[in-house]
Amino acid sequence: MGGGVPGHKFPATLHPNALHVYVEDADAVCRKAVAAGATLIDEPRDQEYGERSGTVRDRAGNLWYIATAKGESPVPKGLHSVNPYLHPLRAEPVISFLKRAFNAQEVAKYASPDGVVHHAVIRVGDSVIEMGESHGKYERMPAMFYLYVPNVDDAYRQAIAAGATSLHEPADQFYGDRSSAVTDAFGNTWYIATHFKDVDM
User: Fold this and answer.
1) Which domains does the chain have, with CATH numbers?
2) Between vectors from CA 143 to CA 17 and to CA 170, what angle results, nearest 5°?
3) What is the DSSP letter of 38?
4) What is the pLDDT of residues 117-151, one digit of tens each?
5) Which of 18, 63, 123, 140 has the fewest C-beta atoms under 10 angstroms from its C-beta?
6) Is 182 helix (H, G, I), strand (E, B) or coil?
7) Distance between CA atoms of 34 and 191, rounded to whole angstroms?
8) Cβ count within 10 A of residue 64
């Protein structure tokens, strides 16, 4: 999270985001979030993809999917305690873009017989992005990502070739990253970077 630096206009529109958070006890944490001022969207319940989860919205409009995985660990293998979550109108085009732009891998996907993707897990580098198609109260929520890659210039060109639109070309930054920025066709902003030196901040 951040807001840029003085003298530099932030090159994107800010939007609320959705986050999938794994905890020891989803019911207890949902109650705690509501007590802290969040609005309960969905009571915790068992999900077909192997977890118990509920949803709250914080005062800034962000959605929090608070979950406990069923199994030996409350966090599913290969995921993190906090995972970004997308709500595209259609998931398949987004997954296809991630594969072409960032060499993403599809880890899991749960779809209904009519083809609606309710939950998908996509790996990009060493990180995971989850998504489920927007429906009802779960509206489309474009997001921002900061993606580290071995070679930002190559990754930037690959993203553009996959259909992304440039916000700025790769350039060395004062904080030690060489970074670029693109938007995809679905409204998400991607800051693509390679770290080249450590800087005392």
Assistant:
1) 18-134 (3.10.180.10), 145-195 (3.30.720.110)
2) 145
3) P
4) 999 999 999 999 999 998 877 888 889 999 999 99
5) 140
6) strand
7) 33
8) 23
